[in-house]
Every structure is written in C-alpha cells, then in structure tokens.
Amino acid sequence: MDDKVKIQLEYVVNCSPKVLYNRLSTASGLAEWFADDVRVQGKKFTFIWEGSEQSAEISLRKENKLVRFTWLDGEDSYFEFRISQDELTNDVSLIVIDFAEEDERGETTDLWNSQIADLKHILGS
C-alpha cells in the first residue's frame, strides 16, 4: 500500500446518522447506491459491479458513527465511512476515506462524488 495515497472526502447529508448508517453497513443499503448487488456472509461482503466481484470484510464498526471495509484481495487496503454530526447545527456529514494510486486520485474522487450523489438522491437529501 506504500504507493497509494489516502483520499478523504466529506459530504453534507440531509438525514439522521441512524438512517445513513443503515445505508452504509447493510447489504440492502449498500446495494441501493454503492454496488449493483451485495452479498453477505457473516462479516464478509461481496460487492458486484457489472459482472465483476470484490470482497471485503467489515473490520471496524461503531453504530451510527463508523464502518470500515478491508478488501480481501491481499493488498491490505480499506475504505471507511465516518458519520459526524455538528453539535450546534445538527448537520450530518459523511466522510469517506479511501486509497488510490497517485495518478488515479482524480478518477477515484469522481467515482465517490458520483456514488455519493446517488446515495443523497436515495436519501432525498
């Protein structure tokens, strides 16, 4: 993972942390916006996109706050969703942490922007 750079993106989402967490941590929630289909066996999630599959395991989870998926392809990389809520305004933010090759940073950011747009559409935010 040495040659990968960390990407951290933040999106304001107009829903409760509980509703958002459900879309980030369950197969049915993730299948609505993240992948074409998602299968779960225990902690292992298999994401299906246009016929290709990738598997990850939930390696960290804090209810309504955080979900981390570690890819099972041996590269020791992960992606993570963090939910934060501003104490004063109650605004809910989704922070996405991912890793990409330096030259794929823009592409990866665009992909997340597009996927989070789908998520926000589903959430009506």
Automatic annotation (TrEMBL):
Name recorded for this polypeptide: START-like domain-containing protein
Domain START-like: 1-124
Domain of life, per lineage: Bacteria
Organism from which the protein derives: Tangfeifania diversioriginum
Matches recorded under InterPro entries: START-like_dom_sf, START_2
Alphabetized Pfam families for the sequence: START_2
